[in-house]
Amino acid sequence: MIKNFVVFIFILFYLSCLLPSYINAKPTLETKVQKLNEATRKNQGVVELDSSLYDEIISAPRNYSIAILLTALEPQINCVPCRDFDPEFRLVANGWLWSGNDPSRLYFGILDFKNGREIYARLNLNNAPTLFYFPPTIGPYAKKVFEQDRYDFNRRGFAAESVAAFLSHHLGTEVPVNRPLNYFAIFLSAFFILAALAVVKLMYPTIQSIILKKNIWTALSLVIILMMISGHMWNHIRGAPYITLNNGKVNYVAHGYSNQLGIESQIVALIYGVCALCVVSLIISVPKIEDKTKQRLGVYVSIGSYAPKLSRMASPAVRCPNCLDPALTVNLYKVQNQLSLFFIPIWRSKAKYLWICDRCKWTGLSRPEEQVREETELGQQNPPLPTWGLTRCTNCSMEINNVSGRMRYCPYCGSNISD
């Protein structure tokens, strides 16, 4: 009896030693695949995870790939991107399940924050959603690098097609996306198309008379032409700002080369529109006026709109002192406001001379007008640069305007003057 009792105690001691190792034993690959297959069939291709199941399915060895979405769908957290991306991710998972490919090659898992706080803390995640792709570690599709790859939402977006392309790149097999048909949208589109056709059928005589009117097409053509030549398409392509601020002041015209503001194109369109209106009125409206006095007045008003103009006469070019490049040039312009009647000048303002770079729009003032006038009357064709801020080139002994203090090259000989 005592002998049997000793044997029983020895067996209990032996089993107690084996029990912890049995409990802590890692699940086999077959066990993990079986769990994943069962969960996939129950939940339309998606495996709902918790912290323990997450650690179990990503542990090696793996002969499968798995895409795991870490999300936060609780109403208290109010994660809008998580709610928006969840149906897109499930759409990709369902498409892979019914694609005809081997479903055990790729699995889809979702770990919610409420079920995986430990995983979030371990990965130091403070934002959601986050999508990881874990490649297989063994088998014919195993890769040398076993690190997970993270999906970049900022670069790729939240669409199911982008996620499918990301997974297809890693798998080497197309992951399809089968979006269900939106029958309500199809019905609504068909209804509006039929309603539009019915309206066109009932109002065809009125619509025909409107379409055949020359004035409507003239106005429409002028609007399109003004939009195109004023730079509206450039603003649309480049996304130009409407206005800019410089030291608290509003800029209506952009500085520099190949720049433009939104309001700048509107100002140009307005000027061109006034000119077009004058031309159209001279051709169409003014000839229909029966009163000769009013007709003559209309002619004067239309032509007078063209009178104020800016006259610029370019001189031989020199190198720009602001672009810091001797290959870039500036031109000397004579700026003078002029009022004309029947193309005959009747008033002119005092002339100003400006150095203007066609590339960077740098502008340098000329000498005082009296001095410029004296030099011009003496036969000097190109008034020189301003006297303030002048330096002398050591190579060609020419005086150079360095008012900005950033000029490095002589505009005449191209030698370096910054030393």
UniProtKB/TrEMBL annotation:
Cellular component GO terms held in the UniProt record: oligosaccharyltransferase complex
Organism classification: Eukaryota, Fungi, Fungi incertae sedis, Mucoromycota, Glomeromycotina
Keyword Endoplasmic reticulum: yes
One of the GO biological process terms: protein N-linked glycosylation via asparagine
Principal location listed in the UniProt entry: endoplasmic reticulum
Name assigned to this protein: 8094_t:CDS:1
Domain Zinc-ribbon: 318-414
Subcellular locations according to the entry: Endoplasmic reticulum membrane
